[in-house]
């Protein structure tokens, strides 16, 4: 088990960090957030087409770079640190993982290279009205009509679902749950951008009315759902670790320079010990991340447990750290113009995106065999 | 629910009846101006009915009753969403400080219009460089004949955009240690040189303002309390603030209140889940324990023991309660907390409440400051070494900014 | 609703506090704890026979003083503060409450005056092997034999069960659960003092072998169990509040005088804020106690909710406060010779005596109608 | 479970085999003397097998391997209850400090007997008046010719009753500020004037001692490091201590370990309760996160980044983990945690573990001290004002006691 990055991986981190410092500074993040697009196409091109980071877990023969989850997590960490406005999580993580897990040759051929190059943006739609993964089966049904499959109903909480070229949806087919690929411009597909707690993480509700879809064959649909969810947990964990590192840095810098009662606030134990607790949470989360990413690449049998661990542990931890960051900034951290709140909102959203805390804990308990 | 005898019971019956007859329906689609006008009308009606300034002296327009009646009113009012927000600072902080420290002229001039809802007040203490350390503020008031001339910037001023008057804390002597050279003034917010800019907070709303003073002239009788005695006046007002924040009634519509989260759990089918039930029970217990503590403080006040610094327990407890509620809300609503359909007008309520929660442990004195107050003033623990205690203000480094 | 003590109640508090300062100082508590008796008969006589404190909730016509729960809670607070080695909780609270709730005239006549005067020590035995209230029905059965009721089986976790003159046991009779009174010297009654985490709170396991018993008639047995449990929750809350006040006092005194790094440790925020949190917990617990005690006397309809609130809230809170007290004393608080650990152990035991935390929360949730 | 290649794998196989062949069965009914003798035999066997001092220099009896092998050994050993307790202080703290600071003669003389289990070490730092503030200690060592004469009292000394040697921190110059006048000595615990009294802790057991020095003579070569350079030596040793405590393997029989609490839940029929399951999952997650953090520290150490003050994260995390486990234990076992039949020998295990938990957040530096270390040394936050930094020790007030 390897829990530290090697020099190439550290190099990758620096490259991405520099790119984002230049092209996704907070001012740019806010422009995109205030604009209506939900992402920055130019930045997305740089990340995907130019640097080839969207296909890190896709083999070279299929259009990717054949690196791995450890590397993808390095990228996700940096994207999380910067709150970079790109549909990487939706497309380069969730959608790519779904296509890979589905083991449907047609789909792979049609989608994978585009997803890996970033020309195609993918999104995954497993959730219905309550947001729980898999609950789309209650609100989306598939039927065979006029020689093809069509979908009827709706899904919600689809990350980057408003801009996706391809949506991979989990629906109830006559024989049970199944996965379907739907083109973003398919007939009868309506998309509504949701209002979100986190203004930097766009989500959409999709309405299907006899919308033509390709049914994925190959792997067991429920197993695919689980596999994608595990990888989503690891990807979200990576974002969280990046966020934690950034808010800790911000908070330490601020409390070093902010003077109250004649000395820097960071010299007060109430503040200093708060920073120490943030650091402990961050360091442990990073350790969990490295393990889960390593498991995804090198010990797939350990991944279900590692992913459940990562999700149950780092979801609440990163929100606590983000909330502490706002707190330790005092009044200024509560203003719109300071960036602390963006992390607070992202962390809360991240914590809930795969379902509420008790579901995450129960998933871990199950996998532990409690 | 409460079993009481005598005059308080009669008072309760009167309040209940009056509220049933007079409490306005919540309004959603009115303009801010219309809302303010309605709030003023309601406050005037409260005054006329004898429910404004319940514990304030009769001679200045109050009712001369006890905290018990105030509690009864608060309890009964909790069932309504009364439009009293614009008057909270005036009723909870500035007014009580005027009662404590104002001259008879000041009380005569300001209290009745405040109670009748004719004048709105704000509090002008915090500055960008002076948050927890209020006494390090840099806004200057320089004597000019019998007048004062004020220059500087305030921040986090709730309601400044609507306010007619403000309680301003300014530095009148920078050559003495920071606590000794402050004076409190009553400032006319419509005076030349006062400008107000809304300050957007992390909810995206602007309940706060920045207030700039540019050569604002104040007359001699604007001083509240003593010249250079402003710190004592500020401590008085901050004490009222903590009690006011800590003891403030949970709003019926507060989406983070136990009742509403329990209702949300029922509506979303989560109320049978043992984990959710346990968390709701703990939330209720924390909320109820705090309410009972506040009631006890009021009963003690009636028996002659003022709450003093124990108001900080209420303030701190209220903030901790909200943070617990944020966790419970996420547990119940999951991803629905984080995203909602634009057509769903109530959808954002929970998100806004979650985004407003950090204010509870920052505004009005951070949790850290409250714990220090409890440690120092309630428990009598030894103070931290105070490095700036005896240093003339001029020589101090403050905030993160260059000195004014 | 009255949440502050009146002058008579405050006078009662002073009287009990002075008595215990004289007759139950920590040295005496430790002597009794190290001896084998489990309580101090002389102190018990003073508290009960001399001051008449064992019959506070018993009417004067039945041998008590006709005061109320508010007053009994004042006494329990002081007993908790001092960790006084008397069977007050078992006898003057649990046993008295059980007899009152049972509404069995014979039992009242036989037991109440003795319990109220302290000549008779009572104990209540509702728990079997898992310690949960009511679980005695699984381990203790009653049968009619030779013209009388006999009990067979065992109960456990009986507070002061080793010294009780009368045990009130909850058992399974042929028609369902029922309450029985058993004499401490009854034939076929075996008593084993348990080993306890808290050396100041004796508990026993009782074995019954055809042990003759009086069956209580009158009130519904399950309702009696609930009523006694509610009152037990309030009584334990009173002890807890007393303990919290004492450990806070200890901790504040110590941290004022202990110097490290050139200044009193109580001047450090890490310590000061810890004391502040203890104070907040204590103040809120006291408020809950006053409400619950008031409800027991003046608003019986509110008692079930108030008692569940008191138990769910103050059980964990008092352990946290006691643990913080040990922590803020540093090394010396961890020694046997310092009293901090006695409160730590009492608080942990008190938290678990009516069942684990989730049961307390669920009980509250039920009564709230969640 | 771990996938590794190469020499570490070979090493693991060797450890696993050796432990399977040589790990003694846990013993319960032996006298302390028999237990100690058995522990010494086992340590000698470990040494002979090449598993003692895995990362220590070969020339002094160590194996000259890396933290990776040490981790492998710890991982494998976690499946056993090895009788290595008496050697923990020596192996984890005193030995590594000797390796860092000892003269060649000292290393030659002391390290091999330590590794072979022939000599037991203890650490003599804390005093009644010097806990968190170790540098305020009052034990004096006064030069007498080339010898030193020691007088004073130490406390919280683990294993002093069995120890052959101690690492003693004493004041050699009271006229300079407290950190500057300390010296570390190697003291023979059997020397005249050393007396050891067991100290009962809140579990009722006496794992600690008080150690009294009454005119104890030490030779010149007893100095470890520099005369008056004892603080640097102490910092070195405390660093090893935190890593040793934080990184120490959870014992298989620790009743507060996740595995055992999960087993307890199954045994008591509580494992199907959703609340219990959730709490167990969180406990596992906290335990695993900490284990992974420790593994990461070791891997970083192997790549040349020593843990430094980050050992405090492990120490703090370990204490917080235990407090969480105490809560989970009560949830699972309820009243059974608080009382048990005298005939049930295992009954007290949980109670003892609960009563031992406060030690985790006090001994070896309180949680408060650890957070300060992380804030100061890892995050580089500004220090608190240090009121005693430049004051000669003679003039300081220390502890709660009159000055010696």
From TrEMBL, chains A, C:
The keyword Transferase does not apply. Keywords: FAD, Flavoprotein, Oxidoreductase. Residues 233-368 form the Acyl-CoA dehydrogenase/oxidase C-terminal domain. Residues 7-119 form the Acyl-CoA dehydrogenase/oxidase N-terminal domain. Pfam families: Acyl-CoA_dh_1, Acyl-CoA_dh_N. GO terms for molecular function: acyl-CoA dehydrogenase activity; flavin adenine dinucleotide binding. InterPro entries: Acyl-CoA_Oxase/DH_mid-dom_sf, AcylCo_DH-like_C, AcylCo_DH/oxidase_C, AcylCoA_DH/ox_N, AcylCoA_DH/ox_N_sf, AcylCoA_DH/oxidase_NM_dom_sf. It comes from the Bacteria. Its cofactor is FAD. Belongs to the acyl-CoA dehydrogenase family. This is Acyl-CoA dehydrogenase.
């Amino acid at each position: 088990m390897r829990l530290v990055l090697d020099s190439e991986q550290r190099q990758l981190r620096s490259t991405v960090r520099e790119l984002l410092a230049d092209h996704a500074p907070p001012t740019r993040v806010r422009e995109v957030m205030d604009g209506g697009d939900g992402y920055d196409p130019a930045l997305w091109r740089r990340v995907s087409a130019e640097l080839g980071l969207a296909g890190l877990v896709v083999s070279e023969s299929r259009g990717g770079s054949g690196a791995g989850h450890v590397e993808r997590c390095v990228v996700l960490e940096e994207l999380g640190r910067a709150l970079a406005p790109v549909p990487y999580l939706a497309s380069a993580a969730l959608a790519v993982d779904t296509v890979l897990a589905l083991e449907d040759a047609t789909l792979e051929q049609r989608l994978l290279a585009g997803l890996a190059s970033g020309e195609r943006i993918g999104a995954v739609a497993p959730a219905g009205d309550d947001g729980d993964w898999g609950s789309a089966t209650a609100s989306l049904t598939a039927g065979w009509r006029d020689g093809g499959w069509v979908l009827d109903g709706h899904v919600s909480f689809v990350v980057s679902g408003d801009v996706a070229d391809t949506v991979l949806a989990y629906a109830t087919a006559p024989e049970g749950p199944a996965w379907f690929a739907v083109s973003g411009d398919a007939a009868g597909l309506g998309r509504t951008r949701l209002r979100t707690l986190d203004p930097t993480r766009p989500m959409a509700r999709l309405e299907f009315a006899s919308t033509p879809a390709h049914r994925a064959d190959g792997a067991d649909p429920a197993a695919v759902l689980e596999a994608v969810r595990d990888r989503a947990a690891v990807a979200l964990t990576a974002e969280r670790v990046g966020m934690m590192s950034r808010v800790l840095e911000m908070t330490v810098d601020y409390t070093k320079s902010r003077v109250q009662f004649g000395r820097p606030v960071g010299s007060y134990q109430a503040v200093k010990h708060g920073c120490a607790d943030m650091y402990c949470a961050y360091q442990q989360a990073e350790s969990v991340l490295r393990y889960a990413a390593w498991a995804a690449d090198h010990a797939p049998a350990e991944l279900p447990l590692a992913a459940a661990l990562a999700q149950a542990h780092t979801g609440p931890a990163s929100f606590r750290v983000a909330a502490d960051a706002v707190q330790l900034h005092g009044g200024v951290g509560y203003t719109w113009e300071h960036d602390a709140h963006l992390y607070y909102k992202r962390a809360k959203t991240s914590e809930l995106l795969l379902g509420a805390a008790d579901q995450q804990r129960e998933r871990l308990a199950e996998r532990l065999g409690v | 629910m409460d079993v009481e005898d005598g005059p308080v019971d009669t008072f309760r019956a009167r309040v209940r009846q009056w509220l049933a007859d007079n409490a306005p329906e919540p309004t959603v689609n009115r303009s801010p101006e219309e809302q303010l006008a309605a709030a003023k009308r309601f406050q005037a009606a409260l005054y006329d009915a004898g429910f404004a300034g319940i514990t304030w002296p009769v001679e200045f327009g109050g009712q001369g009753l006890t905290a018990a009646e105030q509690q009864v009113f608060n309890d009964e009012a909790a069932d309504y969403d009364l439009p009293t927000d614009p008057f909270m600072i005036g009723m909870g902080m500035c007014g009580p400080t005027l009662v404590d420290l104002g001259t008879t002229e000041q009380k005569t001039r300001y209290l009745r219009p405040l109670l009748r809802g004719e004048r709105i007040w704000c509090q002008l203490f915090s500055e960008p460089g002076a948050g927890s350390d209020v006494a390090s503020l840099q806004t200057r008031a320089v004597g000019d004949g019998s007048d004062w001339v004020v220059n500087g910037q305030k921040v986090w001023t709730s309601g400044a955009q609507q306010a007619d008057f403000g309680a301003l804390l300014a530095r009148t002597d920078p050559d003495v240690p920071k606590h000794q050279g402050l004076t409190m003034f009553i400032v006319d917010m419509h005076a030349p040189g006062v400008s107000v800019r809304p300050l957007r907070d992390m909810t995206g709303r602007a309940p706060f303002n920045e207030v700039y003073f540019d050569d604002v002239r104040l007359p001699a009788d604007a001083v509240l309390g003593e010249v250079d005695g402003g710190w004592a006046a500020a401590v008085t007002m901050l004490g009222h603030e903590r009690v006011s924040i800590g003891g403030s009634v949970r709003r019926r519509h507060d989406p983070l209140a136990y009742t509403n989260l329990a209702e949300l759990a029922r509506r979303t089918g989560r109320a049978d889940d043992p984990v959710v039930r346990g968390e709701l029970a703990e939330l209720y217990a924390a909320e109820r324990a705090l309410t009972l503590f506040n009631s006890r403080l009021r009963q003690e006040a009636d028996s002659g023991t003022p709450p003093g610094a124990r108001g900080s327990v209420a303030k701190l407890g209220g903030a901790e309660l909200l943070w617990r509620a944020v966790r419970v809300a996420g547990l119940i609503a999951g991803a629905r907390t984080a995203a909602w359909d634009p057509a769903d007008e109530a959808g954002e309520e929970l998100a806004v409440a979650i985004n407003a929660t950090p204010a509870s442990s920052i505004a009005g004195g951070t949790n850290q400051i409250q714990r220090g107050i409890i440690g120092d003033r309630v428990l009598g623990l030894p103070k931290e070494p105070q490095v700036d205690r005896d240093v003339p203000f001029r020589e101090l480094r403050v905030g993160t900014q260059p000195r004014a």
